[in-house]
Fold each of these.
Amino acid sequence: NAGVTQTPKFQVLKTGQSMTLQCAQDMNHNSMYWYRQDPGMGLRLIYYSASEGTTDKGEVPNGYNVSRLNKREFSLRLESAAPSQTSVYFCASTRLAGGPQTQYFGPGTRLLVL
Amino acid sequence: TQLLEQSPQFLSIQEGENLTVYCNSSSVFSSLQWYRQEPGEGPVLLVTVVTGGEVKKLKRLTFQFGDARKDSSLHITAAQPGDTGLYLCAGGVLTNTGNQFYFGTGTSLTVIP
């Protein structure tokens, strides 16, 4: 099993460009999450999907949209990238939506917005 | 809003020393997790604690959840270079739409051989 995979690994965008970050898990997990990690800030939740067909906002959703394409895939879209969105983005999944679940993280996507 | 504060932010110690990392909040969490993150990789779960006052040991690592479920600590005995990494605590909040996890600011540990 590959676990959680993310593409691309690295990306450089110009301000105003759009892009979609892809995430897939092969563990048959129900819930998936998108975080961003900035120096000194830990990880902050952008959006999450408790189950297929549902999505909800996290702490920092502004400037992002998500799609839970199916049970395996959860994508994050930046419609008009801004320098403030320069960050490392992590996707994670958990088996269930409730309870003290283990989060399994992907390797991250490093995004630079110029 | 940063719900979880970790201290210290940076820690550099000699091999064999002991250390404690703290994770504090004014909020109550249904569970508290500790992760370790290596450069260029995603965080990996070390432990989950769910009961106030709970203590868990993982070899040389001891984790404690505060009685009020608002804070936690990670104690490492006889640190080794392999313990080097970023340690993150994460508090779980169960909502009617699922789990939300709030991460601490992180503690970057360097163990010098």
Note: The mean pLDDT of chain B is 92.
Amino acid sequence: DAKTTQPNSMESNEEEPVHLPCNHSTISGTDYIHWYRQLPSQGPEYVIHGLTSNVNNRMASLAIAEDRKSSTLILHRATLRDAAVYYCILKSSPGSYQLTFGKGTKLSVIP
Amino acid sequence: GAVVSQHPSRVICKSGTSVKIECRSLDFQATTMFWYRQFPKQSLMLMATSNEGSKATYEQGVEKDKFLINHASLTLSTLTVTSAHPEDSSFYICSASSWFSYEQYFGPGTRLTVT
């Protein structure tokens, strides 16, 4: 599986935008970029995914570089509830294939 | 999104006993379920993948005779930790997916403490 690299931790002030980067220089043409997050003492939850085009949903936006070697998860207005570990994961198939979790980025939100 | 439940949420057991953890997909049929383990301050590590009606596929280093997985229906998978020891104390998380889904749905996790 292609590897992703994320900063260990980031901080953001409440109600400000947050840009969480992910590098994946060895991404293959069929790899989708998935983002999950894990709140303290909970199971992970899906945030967003994309292949080539930028994607938006109610939780976040995903900006994918033109060469697909990096991507950025954007939280438009961070809230205290967004404090979590965010994982950037590459997956070549939908649904039934396992996710390989790296260390992720621990996001702290400062009130 | 779909809901996955786990039971129990917390369990404390004595060394040498066995513990069963249930994972249920409440509103969809999960063709595949996954079991993960997470030690404090570490990331999730996949233990095994199970398809309904088939034997589970275990990751390297995970003892299949110690961690028994049953996926008897499209909505239920169980993980039994046999002869538990203190080093098995961890946060166990299941997830469920279907072949047509781009998303995995995770349970809330079960915190196992072996004394």
Note: The longest strand of chain B covers residues 90-97.
